[in-house]
Amino acid sequence: MPVITTIEDLRQIYQRRAPRMFYDYCESGSWTEQTFRQNTSDFAKIHLRQRVAVDMSNRTTETEMIGQKVAMPVALAPVGLTGMQHADGEILAAKAAEKFGVPFTLSTMSICSIEDVAAHTTKPFWFQLYVMKDEDFVRRILQRAKDAGCSALVLTLDLQLLGQRHKDLKNGLSAPPKLTIPTMINLATKVQWGLGMLGTKRRFFGNIVGHATGVGDPASLGAWTAEQFDLQLTWAKIEKLRDMWGGKLILKGINDAEDAIMAQKIGAEAIVVSNHGGRQLDGAHSSIRMLPSILDAVGDTTEVHLDSGIRSGQDVLKAVAMGAKSTFIGRSFVYGLGAMGEAGVTKALEIIHAELDKTMALCGERDVKALGRHNLIVPQGFEDPTAVI
Ligand SMILES: Cc1cc2nc3c(=O)[nH]c(=O)nc-3n(C[C@H](O)[C@H](O)[C@H](O)COP(=O)(O)O)c2cc1C
């Protein structure tokens, strides 16, 4: 077993173990992938202030997200088809998150169902909703999430239609994979993955199949979103969904100050500054670049979280020091899951935690809540989305 020290190490193992179709699904952005790349390269533009001769004993990374205590300012983001990256993927990731003390968010487009994840965990998780045209389906899935004890609804706003990701079209992405000749040749090299899949019944969209009617091709994400996702989603509908849910609400996919103000008016507990990991509007700025203007717009009455591009504990520190209350990770935990199942997700969380903790110390901080702009060296113009840097 190689010595794993970084999220990149996990990505490389994941690439070897997962079928190409699912690796490509995870590791791509839309169109030219400019936003996908800038999500990570913009983090690298921010530097850290090195401080010395400061007491760095008794450090803590503990904080809160929407009033919930968390071991570090990180939650697992909703990721569709997680159960195709590794058999029973959502259950394994949820268990790892629970043991680590960070929130897990279950996607609408998960393989393991809400009820299944609830049956295998002991603490409430969060449920992410894509708004569908079928209001009855939406009402029922929200009720199922409530019945399962989900403690927050994460409403994703940046995917009313699917951004084009070339590789998914070329690979004929589906869950379970359709057995074409190229797919079968590739699957023949993924023995561990195949054995895992043979040993589980969870191979379809667990929240959808058997719960939604009139679905043309329930295996195809592309066909599904085209048929079912609500192109007419508006702030008025979001307000109705807020009332229908009646619990804590997180609005995800905000990447503009004007939208952040609208989200604040809705009365959300938190917003997630996000461009869906560069998978939707290619050409949009990275979320870390948009964060300052959004924070200026909403002040400190709404909790602001951030995702897209986090691959290390240093990235988490930079986001928090820039003013985000917390972060979400998508690919970073999927790499771990695809590499080594539950142990891999735990490994990803351990890596991020250790990097965050040590970096905090070397910046002269002992408490994650004390991080701020004073810890960073930010290039001139970074906060101004119109500046060229
Ligand atoms: C493979 C994959 C599937 C995703 N599926 C969903 C989803 O079902 N619902 C959702 O709200 N966001 C989804 N996202 C977006 C993530 O929640 C998150 O915003 C994104 O991964 C953050 O960027 P990062 O991967 O660079 O951390 C997905 C992201 C990836 C990589």
From TrEMBL:
Gene3D superfamilies per record:
Aldolase class I
Keyword annotations for this protein?
A: Flavoprotein, FMN, Oxidoreductase
Keyword Oxidoreductase found: yes
Among PROSITE patterns, the record links this protein to: FMN_HYDROXY_ACID_DH_1, FMN_HYDROXY_ACID_DH_2
Pfam families cross-referenced by the UniProt entry: FMN_dh
The cofactor(s) it depends on are:
FMN
Q: Which family does it belong to?
A: Belongs to the FMN-dependent alpha-hydroxy acid dehydrogenase family.
Record-given protein name: Alpha-hydroxy-acid oxidizing protein
